[in-house]
């Protein structure tokens, strides 16, 4: 008999997550956090189309004017509003040197939060990378109407690999450095301000049996927000490696996790805890300083995990994958808080952590417009009331005149009868 564990869930805290699937649908999942209420799908954006499959997504999480970048299989990149799903800008990379074909699809997308050269309040910069190693920094002009948008101008295009295929890319918290790695491509770091390669990894040495492990990186992430020199990478040979570019070119720490390829890696805010998901649905947390397993998350997934993300404020993580479930986990107890079935295979998930403050707070311009609308409505109501009062007074006076006329007629008739 298999061993089972019954877990009493403490309920899912209030949160908002956006998921992306292979049919190009974007689904908004929200949890109110009241009486252990499970998260629900509150909105769905787009129509099911396999050619619009979402390959990569990036969210600029802020209170006012947040942005969501989505890279699709057709080669189009859309910049949307994560509040209502409106498309702010849409560009295509087919006209560039790297067409959006099946063998050269987009594998990495990053929407810059900070202002860069040439950016303004109505524009944004994004970094894309294809499987053949074509990195592109693009300037996107946004507008209220989609017809006026799309006036982008490419700033820089360069190659991050000579051969092989890129499978993973990541930008650090300061948005100054980016790492790239893949099948036949060692992990390398690039300075985004100068578009120059500043560091490249070296293949690990052969093991005691003389077996050489081929280079095949599947996922990577920077370990600390304040330091871009340390990052973690997962390989197809179920290895997890910690690199420190200030120490050496080979991994500082390396260990195996189960027996299937590593598919997703996410970092914690503490700077040393990482979350790992593999192709068989196993999810666990490690202390990367020693490679020690902190524990496995209870409630095994039935499909490959493709994305793991840590909430920036709450002690929870979200995972999704090919079993079509979005799962919310508690990072302290490693228990499953909730699972939402979303029908399609999922490729990515992001947290919108500012949705609660965005609902309570109103921008100053909107407050002014609301006040003016209220005053105008009040003035209109007062005018209507005065008009109604005038009409009522006129009708009342008219009825009095009719009554006096009737009374006068009656008085005349009475006088005639008397005579």
TrEMBL record:
Q: Does the keyword Repeat apply?
A: yes
Question: Keywords of this protein's UniProt record, alphabetized?
Answer: Repeat, WD repeat
Residue ranges of the WD repeats are: 298-339
Question: Where on the tree of life does the source sit, at the highest rank?
Answer: Eukaryota
Q: Where is the composition biased (Basic residues)?
A: 387-410
Which PANTHER family does this one have?
Answer: NOP SEVEN ASSOCIATED PROTEIN 1 (PTHR16038), WD REPEAT-CONTAINING PROTEIN 74 (PTHR16038:SF4)
What is the name listed in the Swiss-Prot or TrEMBL entry for this protein?
WD-repeat protein
User: From what organism does this protein derive?
Assistant: Solanum tuberosum
């Amino acid at each position: 008999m298999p061993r089972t564990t019954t877990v009493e869930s403490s309920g899912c805290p209030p949160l908002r997550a956006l998921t992306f699937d292979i049919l190009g649908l974007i689904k908004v999942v929200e949890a109110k956090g009241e009486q252990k209420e499970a998260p629900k799908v509150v909105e769905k954006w787009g129509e099911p189309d396999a050619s619009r499959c979402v390959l990569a997504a990036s969210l600029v999480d802020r209170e006012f004017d947040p942005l969501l970048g989505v890279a699709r299989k057709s080669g189009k990149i859309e910049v949307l509003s994560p509040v209502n799903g409106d498309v702010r800008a849409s560009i295509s990379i087919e006209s560039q040197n790297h067409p959006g074909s099946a063998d050269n699809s987009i594998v990495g997308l990053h929407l810059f939060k900070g202002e860069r050269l040439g950016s303004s309040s109505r524009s944004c910069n994004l970094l894309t990378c294809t499987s053949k190693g074509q990195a592109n920094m693009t300037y996107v002009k946004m507008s209220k109407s989609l017809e006026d948008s799309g006036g982008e101008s490419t700033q820089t295009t360069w190659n991050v690999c000579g051969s092989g295929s890129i499978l993973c890319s990541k930008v650090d918290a300061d948005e100054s450095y980016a790492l790239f790695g893949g099948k036949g491509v060692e992990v390398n770091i690039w300075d985004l301000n100068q578009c120059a390669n500043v560091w490249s990894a070296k293949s690990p040495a052969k093991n005691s049996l003389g077996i050489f492990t081929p280079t095949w990186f599947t996922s990577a992430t920077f370990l600390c927000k304040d330091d871009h020199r340390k990052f973690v990478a997962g390989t197809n040979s179920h290895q997890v490696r910690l690199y420190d570019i200030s120490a050496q070119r080979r991994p500082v720490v390396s260990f195996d996790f189960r027996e299937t390829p590593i598919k997703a890696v996410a970092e914690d805010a503490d700077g040393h805890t990482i979350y790992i998901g593999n192709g068989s649905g196993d999810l666990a947390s490690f202390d990367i300083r020693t490679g020690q397993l902190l524990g496995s998350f209870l409630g095994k997934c039935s499909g490959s995990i493709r994305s793991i993300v840590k909430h920036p404020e709450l002690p929870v993580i979200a995972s999704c994958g090919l079993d079509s479930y979005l799962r919310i986990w508690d990072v302290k107890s490693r228990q499953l808080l909730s699972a939402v079935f979303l029908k399609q295979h999922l490729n990515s998930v992001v947290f919108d952590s500012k949705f609660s403050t965005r609902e309570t707070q109103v921008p100053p311009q909107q407050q002014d417009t609301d006040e003016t609308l209220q005053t105008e409505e009040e003035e209109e109501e007062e005018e209507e009331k005065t008009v109604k009062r005038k009409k009522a007074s006129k009708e009342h006076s008219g009825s009095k005149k009719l009554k006096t006329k009737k009374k006068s007629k009656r008085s005349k008739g009475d006088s005639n009868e008397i005579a």
